[in-house]
Amino acid sequence: MYSLKPLLFLLSALALISLCQAENFTVGSNLNGQLVHIEKVSLSAFPFKVRTKTVSYNGQQAIRGISAIDLDKSKAKVTIMAGGIGFTYATLRLKSERGEGLEYQVQIYA
């Protein structure tokens, strides 16, 4: 007779991995860089809607690193729409899953 313990362990491990998967976004490096911009993005969930937020930065020094930390451990996506590493400006787009909110901390290093 087969035991269900290994199967239950495997299923619970896979569920735990999928629950802990956060979509943190890091480009470049923050080593030897100075934090020049920090912004917290918080949008509540709305049923059946995708929530989006644009974060913009325009400075004097070239950007060395960008980090967007997912505080909500969601499956939201972050993309660079303009500028970024090597530029003095950056525009980021944060997009949630349908029916979910956004909870991110965006850090820009120069």
Can you offer a commentary on this structure?
The strands form two sheets. Strands 1-4-7-2 form a four-stranded antiparallel sheet, with no helix packed on it. It is elongated. 14% of the residues lie in helices and 44% in strands. It has one helix and seven strands, in the order αβββββββ. The chain has one domain (22-109). Residues 7-20 have low confidence and may be disordered.
Give the radius of gyration: 18 Å
Uncertain segments of ≥5 residues (pLDDT<50)?
Answer: 7-20
Number of domains: 1
Q: How would a textbook summarize the main sheet?
A: 4 strands, antiparallel
- Mean of pLDDT: 83
What structural category arises from helix and sheet content? mainly beta
**What best-fitting shape do the alpha-carbon axes yield?**
elongated
Query: What's the tally of helices?
Result: 1
Beta strand count: 7
Percent range of helical residues: 10-25%
Separation of the first and last Cα atoms: 62 Å
In what order do the strands lie side by side in the largest sheet? 1-4-7-2
The SSE order reads HEEEEEEE
Q: Please state roughly what percent of the residues sit in beta strands, choosing from under 5%, 5-15%, 15-25%, 25-35%, 35-45% or over 45%.
A: 35-45%
